[in-house]
Please model this.
Amino acid sequence: MIRIRNVSHHIGPAPILHDISLDIPKGGITALIGPNGAGKSTLLSLIARLAVLRQGEIHIDAMKIGEVSDRELARHLAIMAQSTHVSARLRVEELVGFGRYPWHRGRPGPGDRAIVESAIERFGLGPMRHRFLDEISGGQRQRAFVAMAFAQDTDYLLLDEPLNNLDIAGARSLMRLLRQMADEDGKTVVIVLHDINYAARFADRIVALHEGRVAANGAAREVVTDALLRDVFGTDAKVSLHDGHPVVLV
Amino acid sequence: MLGPLAVLSLFIGAVPVTLGDVLHDPEGQRLLLVSRIPRTLAAILAGAALAVSGQIMQILARNRFVEPISAGAGQSAAMGVLIATLLFPATAIWAKMSIAALTTLIGSVGLLMILRPLPPTQPLLVPLVALIYGGLIEGLVTFFAFQTDMLQFVGTWLTGELSGVLAGRYELLWLAGLAAAACWLIADRLTVMSLGEDAARGLGLNTKVVTGAGLVAVSITTAMVVVTLGAIPFVGLIVPNIVARRMGDNLRRAIPVTALSGALLVLAADILGRVLRAPYEIPVSTLVGVAGAAIFLVLLYRERSHG
Model:
């Protein structure tokens, strides 16, 4: 479980998060949604210790952020940052291979290679495994980065807007893969999503942030409502139910 | 290719030496041992070390268009020897070297601090600022040298050439080679660094330690080369760029190729410098500089068209 207690955060003089307390249970997919500037990405990078936590406490299982070493945490939690623009010219299989770095620290064994192989196969990267990252499409690159996080083989997987740059087919197949990782491998996926419909369709729980506070937290049907769209997102779009999932009519 | 070139380098120079001389003439043997072999080794070591240190610097600065020699580290090394020579003229050579390595480290840290806030969306800003920074330090060095009547000495550090290499006067370059080899040992960590600060920390890498280790390696190689031979620009720039284009940035595979190519480039330039105007010599830094500037322009334009 990820336990967040009384977390506040400023970037310069600008307050980003106000006294957030939140539990993200183990297992399943939790989506963080909210308008631009709500603090979703900041909260994610605080959980992943990429931003320095100054006020409040975050625990991941028994590990306390700020006390646990980067190295130890890297075996329990993987984060895929928002920008996957990397200037390094690496091949797809090399990138996925570096997901194993926290485990082998530079000396991959047969076990590491097997996991990399399965990641490459699972994410359909076989045909492009020898190509450089700057030679494949944005969607393929995105998939390669998720495969790398998968190869890191952590209980927790944090993703910051992984659907950027993806067309509808790419976005749906990526969400299905994440669903599979949650259902079959028992991983805990925390994902920042821009598109509420993807969150409502694929996530088990939705946390809506608004101006640095938790505005709603619960199952998609409880959270995604006309009221949420009006109060949090400031728009009068309507929500309809389809197969039991709420759908925002845009 | 390095082998035949190295052999060629042994037999080319103002004083002709043939294989027969080496076998029978003690004078020929002496020339080979005192001058030609050290000179060839110096070119190989310096070329390899400069190319690798350029590759490391490019990772630390997150930009493909910087290299230590022109970006302040080379000039800081010259500053270091100048300070050492002025303040402690009697100290041993290794002490002067240490001072030079230290000022180089300070100069490199300063460079990274200046480069960090630059927007990543403007990649050409980085080499520009780096060049200005290097020029600034060079200006300072020249000013102090002028004030203290040391301009001639400074000239030998700012222009790299190998005609002065003799046995007993190049051995510190082995240190530079060693520092470059040490980079290969932490090649995986450096490659993880090149994924970006956040991704590297996400993988559990201690980015501060790796940055520090990289800076120390760059400083040692730069200082040793500048003090022994003088500054040789562009090797650290063009070699890593060409290697990256061809085989990517996985440093475990790339560093040996970079080292070899750097050695080849400097050795070839030195041989050419001995031949072109024989019996006079053209400094290796001049030749590499002319060729390097042209190749650099081509690389810049190609990178832009890649978007």
In short: Chain A has ten helices and twelve strands. Residues 2-225 of chain A form a domain with the Rossmann fold fold (CATH 3.40.50.300).
